[in-house]
Design a protein that fits this description.
Layout lengths: L10 H7 L4 E4 L2 E12 L12 H9 L5 E6 L3 E9 L3 E13 L1 H8 L4 H4 L3 H8 L16 E4 L7 E4 L13 E3 L17 E2 L4
Antiparallel strand pairs: 1-2, 1-6, 2-5, 2-8, 3-4, 4-5, 7-8, 7-9
Length: 197
Amino acid sequence: MLPRSFFERDPVPCARDLIGCELVWGEARGTVVETEAYDAEDDPACHTFSRPSARAFVAKHPPGTAYVYFNYGVHWMLNVLVKGNRQGFVLIRALEPVAGLDAMSLARGTSIPTQLCSGPGKLARALGVTGDDHGTDLCSDPQRCFLAAGASLPVAVGPRIGISRAMDFPWRFHVPANRHVSHFRSQDRPRPSHGRS
């Protein structure tokens, strides 16, 4: 289980370093292959920019806490709170399923592995993430946690997607050419980032 200290860092390096880690959600597990960083202080795309409730959440909870919200009244989105010199969230955008695929397939209505968790909304539906999981401590429960990466994976860097503000911030991280990511952009290729800080 990743310790709380892992999340006691700035959003950008934490988002990068979550690539390759495993997310455990009950009987389901998946390797994190895509994330995005959101800065609570001066990022127009972050919930804290316009939502007092998000700012209160950051102030109240420790790093490593799940921040779950309903996006456009359609999909739940799973984030983890991080607090270093800068505070914010890491959105878990995509997983490569490792265990619990039968339950994921039932929840998603498809048995195609690359369609189970290839996007934050799909991921939440596959795992059964709901608003009830908002505020869950992801550093104390072995059934709701992250596991350290088993191997170092190449990490590509690019702009965040699915937002309307601060779209050029290069704060999206993903495993290049991985078929489980939500969206592949060829311009992400020239800027690989390897290793962890």
